[in-house]
Amino acid sequence: MSTGAAVTGNEATTAAPGRRFPLHIVVFLAPAVAIYTLFSIYPLVDTIRLSLYTGDASGQLRFAGLDNFRALFFDPAWSGQFWNALGNNLIFFLIHMVVQNGIGLGLAMLLSLPHLAGGSVYRTLLFLPTMLSVVIIGFIWQLMLNPLWGIAETLMRAVGLGSFFGPYLGEESTALVTISLISVWQFVGIPMMLIYAALLNIPDDLTDAATVDGAGPFSIFWFIKLPLILPTLGVVSILTFVANFNAFDLIYAVKGALAGPNFSTDILGTFFYRTFFGYQLQVGSPTMGATVATAMLVIILLGVLVYLFGVQRRLQRHTF
Amino acid sequence: MTASSGILRRKVGRLLAGASLTLAALAGPAAAQTLTIESWRNDDADVWNSKIIPAFNKAHPNIKVQFKADPPTEYNAALNARLAGGTAGDLITCRPFDASLDLFKKGHLTSVNDVKGMENFSPVAKSAWTTDDGKDTFCVPMASVIHGFIYNKEIFDELKLTPPKTAAEFKTVLDKIKADGKYTPLAMGTADQWEAATMGFQNIGVNYWKGEEGRKALIEGKQKLTDEPYVKTFAELASWAPYMGRGYQAQKYPDTQNLFALGRAAIYPAGSWDIPIFRQQADFEFDAFAPPVPEGSQKCYISDHTDIAIGINAKSKNVEAAKTFLAWVASPEFAEIYANELPGFFPLSNAKVNLKDPVAAKFASWRGTCESSIRNSYQILSRGTPNLENELWNVSAQVLNGTLKPEEAAKKVQDGLASWYQPQK
Known about the structure:
The structure holds 2 protein chains of 2 kinds. By secondary structure, chain A is mainly alpha-helical. Chain A has helices spanning about 1-15, 25-50, 65-75, 75-110, 120-130, 135-145, 150-160, 175-185, 190-200, 205-210, 215-245, 250-255, 270-275, 285-310, and strands spanning about 55, 60-65, 280, 280-285. Chain A has 14 helices and 4 strands. The relative contact order of chain A is 0.11. Chain B contains 17 helices and 10 strands. In chain B, strand 1, helix 2 (about 45-60) and strand 2 (about 65-70) form a beta-alpha-beta unit. Chains A and B meet through helix 4, strand 3 and strand 4 of A and helix 3, helix 4 and helix 16 of B.
């Protein structure tokens, strides 16, 4: 009650008439506003502007309205690839959500066990791949999975799974899942660390009290810890979403910009690259590329909005 | 405090002035005479730096040349970005046909009609870098590459095989190698897709569509990709699958090269540019045979693809020096050096060149016995969306993977082409 009164009192003084505009606010905001405007907002707006133009053979631009978007969504030459890339991107995202964040949560739980020996060693080792270059990750995994000289087949045979081995990265049915799992392997450290930090924040009193009340480890996780780390899980989900719909490098490093076989590993990032820069005999089109980029922006924006209004607002936060 | 900082300031000032003077001295005369070459041949950087450029400098000591290469798959994108930003080098290595024509139309390349030595090239040699109306040539042709098959001579001797001449003989040879079981009969993978299209489809296809005759018929709309020659090429390609290495679907181009260079595979569907790599890496004797001809064929055809040329950046500040360099590139001296330092790249000029590498000489000898043709997807047919070349990569890999039947592959590329190319509608 008393804090509430204090706040109202403060508001009253700020809103007092006749006070000069607080200049220091502008001063503090200026660096961020300037940098974001120059390097984020301006390029974004210019990309959207460019997507409304079309270029001819001599490189001259002319205004085309929404023609590019019409082509992207409805012209079979473009829309087939676009929807395919979007679908693949969704699968890519779902695999990350379920496998990467699931394993990340599990690992964080294990790491936060009170009597774990060598916890910091595991933590470092599990986080290590995240810091490696994607090109190196792609190269190592390609070598391991290589059907000619890879180690994967030998290992699988040693545990009696030899007959399940196949050229995973080369077959339409398995390539996307395999690449997704490689990416999961690389980035599992990030959700793990975030969730681990959230788990450490939960005071022991709460779990102790629950134990005294007769809760087992499963009840403690389900009814005490999980609700308390939900905001972190929300942040992890949105980070995964944005990162996955911007993904490009691993697939480019492993499968090239044509994302074969038969575009089965093509996601929005590689589709954008091909469109904007061109590939082999496909001549790049800056305007069509900007259109794809704008579509990606809208997709990511929609996802973030759904999260902000559908999830974020319903989350309860607790501070201790 | 103030005194010392004053001295310091003066010292720093003097240092800076000195540095800028030296920089100016370095930049002044050198900038006028330094040419930078943009290229995708990063494999050849050594040869350029140690052989080609020094040879040029013997005659023109006052023009410095720098060779700057990007990885092949990134070249087009990187070059376009640099041209748009005005930071590209003086000399641009030209991809054949539309990629370079596009640069010329956008005003990034100048015409090279007046470069000395252009008369050394036949119209066919220049075709890949000439406007549709034939008026302007914008790059000086450097070399073409020829497709064929390289084979491991020791394996052939061991299994008592002779290089096949017809498609049927080719199958017999493959069967024998497979029956022996020690070696992979055919070194090829589909993971990179272009291998399947270039070393597979274009390599053997010329014999089916009769080289230039079929290529022109396709451009004029007189033939369709669903016609017999193309379906037959895909069918022949599909029949290779059982002879390729285990898990070839995930096998990349470097894997393929290694498989052959390590002596574990007998036959390698090749581009002639592979010769210098195998010269370095393979410790066995190898030789080559031309693409086997289908039954009942009288003539043989080869894919002799005009692949590489060099032009001048329109924004270059050293156009005169660049023209001097290009005139030298058009000379017989360059042809001789290039052909022998990079065996497998065959000069396009009319100059008689003596090839020292026996395998390269063998590839070149097919020009005398077979008809030459360029890859059918390069001229005009890759201008639209979807472009034929990238579509051919996709379907050729799928045909080899067994996920697309030859007729389906032919229909897919034909549908794609017909969707934007008027004569094919």
